[in-house]
Design brief:
Four copies of one chain form a homotetramer. Chain A has about 240 residues and is mostly helical. Helices cover about 75% and strands about 0% of the residues of chain A. Chain C binds a DNA duplex (21 and 21 nucleotides) through helix 1, helix 2 and helix 3.
Chain lengths: ~240, ~240, ~240, ~240
DNA sequence: GATGAATGAGGCTTCATTCAT
DNA sequence: CATGAATGAAGCCTCATTCAT
C-alpha cells in the first residue's frame, strides 16, 4: 500500500495498535529517510533546472531510486512540488515566528526577522528561495492554491506582529494599512532575496541588505501610525 | 521570409529606405495589426490559462489565424512570451518614468508612481500583472534573462529617483541602501498588486492600498537617510 | 486544428462557405483516406493482437503514419475502438435492414438475414466479428455504452421484424416474448459466428450453420405465437 | 513454497499421504479459506471495475492480505482470472448437468436448465455472468483458451442432451444441426443474461424471460428434426 | 504570405511482479 | 507464511515545430 494514499498503518482486524517492534521502527525510519532523499533531489533539481525541465526520471536518478519508488512516495510530480512548497512555507513561518516571539510590541521583532531571514535562511537555502519565489509560480491551480495559502499565512503572521506593535506605538491608520504593510514586507523580502541571491550572487551583502531593509520597514511602519497632521504632511509630501 | 528575419535586414547597410508604395504601406499596416492580435491572444491566454497550459494552436485559434502564421510572426512560443514581457516592462517603465519626471528631488515622484501603478495600470492590466509577476517566472533561461533585465531597469529607474531625492533630503546611508530601497519598492508593488488583484479581486481597494504603500515607502526612505544618531536609535532600535 | 475537435471547416470571418477548390477537395479526400487507413490498421491489430496488447505506436506504424497523426485524427485509443465499433454496428444494421426490407410479414426476412450474415458478412469480416463480439467487451464505460447502444439497436430492428411478422402469423404471446426472441437471435448469431469463425476456422460450414440457425429461429418464433392450448402443451411441455 | 507448486508435488510418486496432524489440518483449512477470500475479492472487483482496471493491490486490500500473499496463492493476475473462470464454468456445468439428469429424452431437460439458469444462477451470481461473458473476453491467449474450453464443454453437454432427445423425437437433420443448436442455446443464454441482468437490471423479469427462451428453444429444436416435407416447407422456407 | 496536417521526441504515470525481511 | 517497499518496462498522450501546398 502506497504511502501517499493516506491509508497508513491499517490494522485489518481492528487489532489494538501493537507497540512497534524494533524492525518496524527501523523500516519507518528508512521510509522517512527515503522520502527525504527524494524530496531533496526534487528540490535541488527544481531549483537548478526548473520545475518543468526536470523529469521524473531525473529525480529518481538523483535520489538513486527508481521512478516507481518516487510514485510510491508521492502522488505525482505536482505533489512533489507542493510538499516542497509547504515545507518551505512551514519552515519560514517557524523561523519568523521565533523571531517575533520575544519582541512583542517592539519593532525589534522585525529586526530579528530580517536578520534571521537574510543572514541565515537565505544563504543557507538559496534553492528554497528559488522554489518558493520562482518555481512554484504559475504552475497549476493546485500549486497556486498552496502558494496562496502560504503567503497568506506569512502575511497573517506579519499582521499579528504589527498589531501587537500598536500597543507600543499607537494605532495604525486603518486595518487596510496593516494588511498593506504585511504584504509589503513580504514583497520586500521576496524581491530582495531573489535579487541578491538568485540574480546576483551577493551572499556576502545579504547581511547589510537585511539591515537596510529592516530600517526601511521600521520607517515605513512608523509612518503609517495615525500620524498627527503636522508630521503627515512633512513625511509624506515632503514639503508644503 | 519571416518578419523576424526581415527585421534584421533593415539597418546593416544603412540604405536609404525606399519610399513605400500605397499597397506596401497597407501590407505593413495589416502585418502590424496581425502581430498585435496574436500577441494579444497570447497575452490573454498566458494570463488566464498559464504559459505552459496554453498551446500554440489555441493561441492561433484565438487570434483567428493558423499556427503557421503565428510562427511567421514569432520565432517560437518563448519569443511570444519574451516580447510580451518586454512590452510590459517597457510600458511599466514609461509609466513610472512619467510619474517621476516632474517631481525631481521630491518624494512626490513616488506618490505619483504608486498612484499611477495601483490606480491605473493594475486595474486596467491585470493580465499584464499576471504575466510579468507570475507567468514569466522560471520558464527558461532566455525568459529569465529578459525578466532580470526588466527588473534591473525598473530598479535603476527607482535608484535614479532616489538619488535625485538626495539633493533634497540629504545623503542616504550608503549606495547599497539605495539599491535595497529600489528593490524593496519593486517588491512591494509586485506583491501588493499580485495580492490585491490576482489572489483577491479587490480592485476597489487598490487606490487605498496605493496610498498606504506610498506612505510606507516615504517613511522607509526617510529612515535610510544618514540619520543623526538620536533619530536612528529611536526609530529603528526602538529602545535605548 | 485537429479533426477530432469537431470544429471542422471553421470560417473565421463568417464568410459564406466558398465552393471547394480542386485542391481543397483533394485534401479532403486524402484526409478521409488517411483516416480510413488508420482505422483499418487499428481494426486489424485489435482483432489480431487484442485491444490492450496493441500499442498506439504499433497502430501508427501499421498505418505508416506517426503517433501524432493518429492523435490528430482520433481523440485517443478508446476513440479508435469506439469508432470502429460504431461503424461495424452501422454496417451490420444496414445489412440486416436490407435483408428484412422486402420480406415483411414473412419469416423470409430472417432467412435473408441469416444468409447475409453467415455467408457474407462473417467470412468477409472475421476481424469485425472479433471486434464487436470480443475486443469491445468490458473495456471501459464509454465503450460499453456504445456496445450497449449498438446491441440495443440491433435488437430493436429484430423486434420490428418480429412485430411485422405478427400480421401474418398471429400475435405473439407477449411483448416480452418479442424482446426475448430478438435478444435470443442476436445471441445466436453472436455465439455461432464466434464459434465457427474465431474459435474454429470453419468458414466453409458457415453457410450450413446459417441454414440450421435460421430454421431453429423459425421454429422458435412459431412456438412463441399465442398458441392454441393443444399445440402449446405438445410443443413446449412435450407431454402430459 | 507456493501452493501452486505444492499442488504439483502431490501425485508423482503416489506416496501414501501421511496422516495430517491437527495443526496441519488447521493450516490447510486456513489456507483454503484465504484462497477463497482472495478469489472472492478478485471476482467482485473484476465484475465491478473490470479486469484491467483492477490492480493487484486493490485485490489484496479487499481480501485484507498483502500483495505478496496474493502471489503466494496465485501465479499471477491472469491465474486469478483463469481460476475464477474455470470455477464458474464448472459450476455452470454442474448446474445444467443436474437439470438435464433426470429428463433424458425429453425437452423437459431444457426447461429445467432454463429455469435453473435464469431463475437461480443469474440473479444470485450477476458477477459471475459479468465475468464469464464479459471480463474474460479477449484478455489473453491463455484466458481465451480456457474460455474456449469451457464453452466447448457446455456445448458438449448441450449436444449430449440433444442427442438423447433424438431417441424420443426422432433424428435431427444432421450432426452439424446438433452443433448449431447447442451453440445457439448457449448464445441465447449468454445474451439474454447479459441483456436483462447487466445492461438492464430486470432481475424480476428473468423468470419470464427464461420461460420464453425455453419455449423458443423447444420450437427451434423441433424444427430441426428431420422434418417431413410438408412441415418443412411451411415453417422454414415459407415458400414452395 | 498563409495554411494546417504531420511529426516524433519526450513527458508523466501505471502496475504486475519480485524479494529481502 | 506474510509483508509491502521497490522495480522499471511499457503505455498513452501532448505539443512545439516544420513544410509542402
Amino acid at each position: 500500500m502506497s504511502v501517499n494514499q493516506a491509508r497508513k498503518r491499517r490494522s485489518p482486524k481492528g487489532k489494538p495498535e501493537a507497540p512497534l517492534t524494533r524492525s518496524a521502527r527501523r523500516r519507518l525510519r528508512e521510509r522517512e529517510h527515503r522520502l527525504e532523499t527524494i524530496l531533496g533531489a526534487a528540490g535541488s533539481l527544481f531549483a537548478e533546472e526548473g520545475y518543468h525541465r526536470t523529469g521524473m526520471e531525473r529525480i529518481a536518478d538523483e535520489a538513486e531510486v527508481s521512478v516507481g519508488t518516487v510514485y510510491f512516495y508521492f502522488k505525482n510530480k505536482e505533489d512533489l512540488l507542493v510538499q516542497l512548497l509547504d515545507r518551505t512555507g512551514y519552515e519560514l513561518r517557524s523561523l519568523l515566528g521565533d523571531a517575533f516571539r520575544h519582541a512583542d510590541g517592539t519593532l525589534e521583532g522585525f529586526r530579528n526577522a530580517g536578520k534571521v531571514f537574510f543572514e541565515e535562511f537565505c544563504p543557507r537555502n538559496p534553492e528554497k528561495i528559488a522554489l518558493i519565489f520562482r518555481e512554484s509560480a504559475g504552475q497549476s491551480a493546485v500549486v497556486e492554491a498552496h502558494r496562496k495559502r502560504i503567503f497568506a499565512k506569512l502575511i497573517d503572521d506579519l499582521k499579528a506582529a504589527l498589531t501587537s506593535v500598536e500597543a507600543n506605538l499607537g494605532a495604525f491608520r486603518s486595518d487596510l494599512a496593516i494588511d498593506v504593510m504585511a504584504a509589503s514586507i513580504l514583497g520586500m523580502f521576496e524581491r530582495l532575496a531573489y535579487h541578491y541571491l538568485i540574480w546576483q550572487d551577493r551572499r556576502g551583502d545579504l547581511s547589510a541588505v537585511g539591515d537596510d531593509a529592516v530600517d526601511f520597514i521600521a520607517g515605513g511602519i512608523r509612518n503609517l501610525l495615525q500620524a498627527d497632521p503636522a508630521d503627515e504632511e512633512n513625511l509624506s509630501h515632503g514639503r508644503d
